[in-house]
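agent> Task received from the user: take the single chain below, predict its 3D structure, and emit structure tokens. No templates, no multimer pairing.
agent> Plan: (1) validate residues, (2) run structure prediction, (3) serialize to tokens, (4) report one or two observations.
agent> Step 1 OK, no nonstandard residues flagged.
tool_call: predict_structure(input=
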Amino acid sequence: MPETGLAERTGAFDVRRKQLGSVHAPQTVKTARLTGRRIAADDLPYLREVDSDARVQRSLFGKVQTLARSRERLRRWILMWEEDGTGFWLFVDDRGQTIGHGGLFRSPREAGEIELGYVVKPAHWGHGFATEIALRALDVGFTDLALERIIAIAQARNAESRHVMEKCGMLFEADLPSPDGVHGVRYAVSRSAWLRGRER
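)
tool_result: status=success, residues=200
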């Protein structure tokens, strides 16, 4: 499940961002089964839930996160929306159950790149929600924001997340050795390739 785990272990998140452009991502989005809304300040309980779940963190930071760390991450997520006009949405199903989060952000590891990230709560693994969230985020990136390229980063051993990227039409580009020994991989898809895929 790529998000910001590998990147945040290699350096501080750069808050001195350039604007993505004058067009902003929608505050709410819908998929076939889910509704996503912009992350807000009162979403700390959700973030604490996933940050303290060892099953989730195994594929992100490698260890559960402290309350202080969760608060800092939420602050950055809110700042993303304020400065770049895009970021993470929190997704719920038609019964109001929180499924996970996903969205687009400036990559803190790959300079000049826009990165796709998503996390699904373990109770909802195996139902295709990660792919559904990722596809919707890519659609916003290429249709609403007119981005030319989007990347995703995951741990090399995270076969499930790599499978999601591939199902979304992303292609493997590079291995990303990490100073802390957590080997990563980068996938990417261009706007032209995404549009061709939609036409099929």
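agent> Step 4: summary for the user.
Helices lie at 5-10, 44-51, 54-57, 67-84, 129-144, 159-167, 191-199.
agent> Done.
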